[in-house]
Amino acid sequence: MKTHEIAEFLTGELFGNGDIEISGIANLEKASLGDIAFIEKSVNFPATKASCLIVPKDIARLRAETRPVESVSVIAVDNPKLAFALIAAKLHPFEIRYGHYHPTAVYPDTDDIQAGYIGAFVSIGENTQIGEGCQIHDGVRIGKNVVIRKFTIIHPNCVIYDNVEIGNGCIIHAGTVIGADGFGYVRDAEKYVKFPQIGTVVIEDDVEIGANSCVDRGALGETRIGQGTKIDNLVQVGHNVHIGKRCVIAAQTGISGSVVIEDDCVIGGQVGFGDHVRVLSGAVIGSQAGVLPGKIVRPGVWWGTPIQPLDEFKRQNAHVKGIARLKEEVREIKKKIQSISAKDPANGPDL
């Protein structure tokens, strides 16, 4: 694409040559001729070999006023990082593979299997539907009565249990398990009796789940992940969990059973949720926070264990950091009192 076409696509303002051909994306340090890169905040234009830069509007105008743009064209937008992601998808579109089913793959010979690509040693159960343009990579095991809609990618060595539904345009990264039994037991005298785990998992459109994550099936109902939600690597989603739309959940988070996370929430890494927690829309929970069972987390920024509003967490953290200084001050006061007491034992306090 030429730079003027990119500017039009991004509805940005172009400074410089509009006829430079752009064929790739890169960061500022690695970029070369024909690449496009972006600057998010800095007001200084760093040295780069990129042919085009996406920058904030105020930086572009400052550049244009101070000196002309010569070898590097500049496109000014409101959100450079978002614009870069959009043009990256345009320059490197999703590759749809058609017509390659590896001879070692085992799958039902029906019209319900319409995947564009099925890799080596894939196994697909009966009554399963796989939509047009899907990619099922090596070593994937898909159970019976599964529905996977169009243009979804299942990366190597994933396991999709029976009766799971996955929407359009999802990405499931390597080693992820979807639909395993939830962790549900009832105590009976000297043993634990397994509670039925016969529900399902429903993953809506445009969801991405990172490598080696686990999404357990509902006990009697469903576990659901809403449209557009992005889940990082090594995340545990327990049974009957409902995650809303457009949520972001970072690595090593553990979500206990029956938790509800509403739309547009942000969950940091290594957050632990007790069961039956409800996180209301717009809440942000910081890394390594702990959410006690049954807690209702309202909109705002939360941190710590147990979680608390960020301002309170900062105050408590400041107090904790001040304990060493306080101990030293108390020690000095005690020394002075002891010194006074030694000089005048009759008037000194009993320490």
The dominant shape is: flat
Q: What is the class of the largest domain in the CATH system? A: Mainly Beta
**Number of structural domains:** 3
Which architecture of the largest domain per CATH?
Answer: 3 Solenoid
The helix count comes to 5
CATH superfamily of the largest domain: Hexapeptide repeat proteins
Radius of gyration over all CA atoms, rounded: 28 Å
Oligomer: single chain
Q: What structural category characterises the helix and strand content? A: alpha/beta
How are the strands ordered across the major sheet?
6-7-10-13-16-21-24-27-30-33-36-37
The biggest sheet, with number of strands, parallel, antiparallel or mixed sense and barrel status, is: 12 strands, mixed
